[in-house]
Amino acid sequence: MEIFLRIVKKIHLMLRIYKYHFLSDAFNKTSNAVLGQPVLFTGKGKITLGKCSLGCWPSPFFHNGYAHIEAREASASVVIADGVVINNNACIIAERTSVSIAKDTLIGPNLCIFDSDFHGIDPSHRQDGSHACAPVFIGENVFIGFGVTILKGVTVGSNSVIASGSIVTKSVPENVVFGGNPGRVISVIA
To answer: pLDDT band for position 171 (50/70/90)?
Structure first.
């Protein structure tokens, strides 16, 4: 019975991965990624994935979530380097600029990274596309916990740790533990 259940789970996962593959419309994509969960690739920009891993078992949202990776406009790019492991249910959107994740970074479930506000604050300009965008860069060997949101214009320095549940609105130095809402440096990694 256990073997039968494993086979059914594997077939179910494969069907979900293929479903999202067929729903994806990002044609400017190169990928060496290992997909452990369904991933929707979308947008007119460039998506480049090194030898990374998207989705993890056992971990939350494995059976009911998916990763969303979008390079929305032609000028946008998402680059994920070799050795990066992104857990389940990630949402990475580069609207006009870029989101880059350097090698050997580990990311927990429910990640959100955005290079954009998507809408202006001023009600008279909320729908006109004049909102701000700025690149996001995650350095090498960073550890990002569960439920982290990283917003436009942020650079996360190499070897840093972003605590679970953090909202990152400003750049993070190298070799620190950073956390909170809004996030701040908690300690230095010796």
So the answer is: very high
Phi, psi at residue 175, to the nearest 5°? 55, 45
Give the closest residue to 75 by CA, choosing from 34, 28, 38, 117. Answer: 28
Q: In 10 A of CB 104, how many CB atoms?
A: 18
For 134, 147, 150, 162, 186, the CA distances from 165, given in Å and listed in that order, are 22, 5, 11, 9, 14
Return the CATH number at 52. Answer: 2.160.10.10
Closest CA to 138 of 62, 58, 84, 61: 84
**Into how many domains does the chain fold?**
1
Question: SS3 of 149, please?
Answer: strand
With 0-12 / 13-18 / 19 or more C-beta atoms within 10 angstroms meaning exposed / middle / buried, residue 12 is exposed
Confidence label for 144 from pLDDT (cuts 50, 70 and 90): very high
Angstrom distance (rounded) from CA 178 to CA 185: 4
Position 52, amino acid: C
d(CA 168, CA 137): 12
Entry field: residues in the chain? 190
Domain ranges, residue 46? 2-188
pLDDT at 2 over 90: no
Active site residues: 119
The C-alpha atoms of residue 102 and residue 139 are separated, in whole angstroms, by: 5
